[in-house]
Amino acid sequence: MRGVPKTTNSAVRAWVEEMAALCQPDRVHWCDGSAAEKEALTVDAVAAGVLVKLNQEKLPGCYYHRSKPNDVARVEHCTYICTETEAEAGPTNNWAPPREMKEKLFGMARGGMKGRTMYVIPYLMGPPGSSFAKVGVELTDSLYVVLNMRMMTRMGLVAYEQLGDRTDFNRGLHCMLDVDPDRRYIAHFPRQNLILSVGSAYGGNVLLGKKCLALRIGSYLGRTEGWMAEHMLILGVESPSGERTYVAAAFPSACGKTNFAMLVPPARFKDWKIWTVGDDIAWMRPGSDGRLYAINPEAGYFGVAPGTNSQTNPNAMRTIAQNTIYTNVALTPDLDVWWEGKDGEPPREAIDWQGRPWTPASKEKAAHPNSRFTAPMTNNPVLAPEASDPEGVPISAIIFGGRRASTLPLVFQTFDWVHGVFVGATVGSEMTAAAVGGLGQVRRDPMAMLPFCGYNMGDYFRHWLQMRKRLKYPPRIFHVNWFRKDGDHHFLWPGFGENMRVLKWIVDRCHGRANAIETPLGWVPGPQDIDLEGLEDFTAEKLQKVLNIDIEEWRRELLMQEELFLELYAFLPKELIFQRELLIARL
Ligand code: OXD
Ligand code: MN
Q1: Residue 5 falls within a domain, yes or no?
Q2: Domain count along the chain
Q3: Using 50, 70 and 90 to split pLDDT, how confident is the model at 172?
Q4: Domain coverage including residue 368
């Protein structure tokens, strides 16, 4: 049965027909995105055991999901960029010839939905009516995907309205198959605007609007169309006088983008306000006034649960108190959820993320370190109304950052755009649980895009350099490190809401009203330039430590950076090699 098409767009209909003939589902369900549909599909998901209804008194509208233990994070080793040539994908991506990969994955999908339903998910990335926005159609056999995509994107008929009778939508096919890690592929075909995902049912591998379209395919389209798709949060800083300054920040996965995007200023800054535009992805393009404008293409948050509590992120706790899907956290006997680092005492007993009995005496964690919440952005009490502005917001500052126990100071400002691109290109970070493998090792993660750049990283740097020519008022570029530690492995900087102190310096620098000291790395705040009032136990000496630049550590850092540069050498813009020389000379 083919279901009733919810669009007259013949290219969409043809794509669904073709894929249904291939995958042979028993039914085709054309999603419309309505509230009634959500209700009905949620009932189906509970009946099928895909979702567990949580305690509705404590968590109204909330549900729980466990993925297979072999399927809990993004899988970079199974992620492919299938450009026409290997050089176009570049040395940091897995590549396979498009025809070969399509044959293989369509072969795997053949008959793969027998006995199942194929859901047709039309979705819009970006505000309706925005010239930034892109349409995708994801075909999936997972109800979990439908219900998550409904929060993470503007899903439903709105997407067909934006598309009209054009044919340039992203085609996405997702088949769970038997969720076998040996038969798992996330393949991107940028030239064809096509994504094929098989063998997974988890987050970034299967919610195709997010990493696959908004970043990998998006970055490729951005280069050809003259815009940028970046792994960045977007926030608005409102000063006591009502001035709003917008900032975009790129930190690698699970390094606190969601926390930063929802920051609650400490008492000292009570007249300041932070507004969230987005927490993970920014699409940016030059505006007619010469500034860089950004939208958040998403409509929800797929955030890391462990460590989220009313101290670290009170706005996230409010956001996920209703209408949220929790994945791979622990389940308590009264159908509440728990994770390491949640408020209060651990439950006396629980079911862990693998479905096994758990108590505080258990050796293993109750929640998977990469367990997640999915919530609509409209739940966020500090959602910026501009998040739905089709024009986006003008960006004054771009911030790069990583998780670094040493070497990188709390904050510095780069000398100019080209220097900023060099600093972004050399971002290093200790790996987290968001991707499989390598936990804790420092790896280079240029612009936090290493797992998400849909083409050659060297060309991506070149694109960044070229964007400067199209901007009359380029954003200032900064680098931050909230994670520096002392000799006893204690964090030197308190982080979270206190990051407001650093953010204020950044904003003031953008408006030309804060001082700084020139160092070999860039401009660094002097001892008086970060407001420490009300920050207990934080001395000027500690500030000096967290801002310190140690020349010996930097010599080692330069050698570590060399690793990436050697890998990319054949493709690197010479401006970056020159920036490296300049840094060596300054050091
Ligand atoms: C994410 C990630 O889920 O970066 O946002 O892994
Ligand atoms: Mn991310």
Answers
A1: no
A2: 3
A3: very high
A4: 301-378
Please enumerate in sequence order all residues whose Cβ is within 8 A of that of 197, keeping only pairs 6 or more positions apart, or say none. 172, 173, 174, 175, 185, 186, 187, 205, 206, 208, 212
Centre of ligand 2 to C-alpha 195, Å, is 18
Coil, helix or strand for 483?
coil
- Closest ligand 1 atom number to CA of residue 253: 4
CB of 306 shorter than 6 A to ligand 1? no
- Mutate-to-test residue for ligand 1 from 152, 255, 302, highest number of ligand atoms within 8 A of CB: 302
pLDDT in tens, 479-518: 999 999 998 999 999 999 999 999 999 999 999 999 999 9
Q: Is 74 in the pocket of ligand 1 (CB under 6 A)?
A: yes
Q: For residue 212, indicate whether it is catalytic.
A: no
Q: Within 13 A of 366's CA, how many CA atoms are on the CB side?
A: 25
Tokens coding 313: 């992120």
Query: Which CATH number is 24's domain given?
Result: 3.40.449.10
Among the listed residues 82, 255, 453, 510, the single catalytic one is: 255
- Does residue 1 register a pLDDT over 70? no
User: Does ligand 1 lie within 6 Å of residue 546's CB atom?
Assistant: no
| Residue 395 Cβ contacting ligand 1 at under 6 Å | no
Say which residue, 425 or 430, is predicted with more confidence: 425
Instruction: Give the rounded percent of residues in the chain with a pLDDT score beyond 70.
Output: 100
pLDDT tens-digit map of 242-290: 999 999 999 999 899 999 999 999 999 999 999 999 999 999 999 999 9
